[in-house]
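Before the break, one more example. Copy the sequence into your notebook; we will annotate it together after we see the structure.
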Amino acid sequence: MPDQPDPPEKWRVYKEDKTPDPEPPLSVHPPTSNPPQVPYGQSSSYNPVVITSSGTSAAPKIVLLVVALLVLGGVVAGAIAIFAAVGGVGGLGGGIDAKDPEDFEEFTEEFEKKFGRTDVQSVNLYTDYIIVYLPYSEDRDDDRQIGYTWRGGDEFEEWHRSTSTEPTFDLTEIDTSAIDGMCDSVLSRADGATPDDCYIFLRKPPDGSEGWYRASASDSFNRSVWTEYDLNGVEVGRSE
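Here is what the structure looks like once it is written out:
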């Protein structure tokens, strides 16, 4: 044909090179990954196991395994530490026996150190805490009242605010040993009541009355009985 080059005298035949190409070197570094979350204060137990292998493909297959049991162990240990820190369920309550004379004496000492005064209007002794009411200020014309809860130590938690003209008395003049045994009378008359069901209330009585203390408890039918005592712990009255 015109304008066409002459064919070559000899054709070259292409021979396929079947020699496989060398595989690239395997990476020994695991992929970047964030460590598992562990409880605060616990060391991480993140120990990945890396397995590398090569197959027919050029890229290696990398499998990252996290040892779940170790991580779970850290979580459990953290939970136990937190539970121990708050003292378990019992740690939520007070650490005193409010009707124990020695704990009552400690309350008086801590109150004076905290507030720099000892004049109060009433003191209520419950199971493992004490509630005290006192004038908000030392101004005699100020009828504001404030109450605090004490569960031991030097901490007083504000409990209540109100007004009251109830007279005050000096805590340091109270013989704390007088409260010993005050619950016996009401517990013997309130069927089903336990020592935790007995409460003692201390306040200055009105003129003509000697009842500084009143111990009270309720039976299984919620019927209340009470006994009153003077400053020395001598019974001066009781309910029918």
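Confidence is low (pLDDT under 50) at residues 26-92. Residues 187 and 195 are 7 Å apart (CA to CA). Try to locate both features in your own notes.
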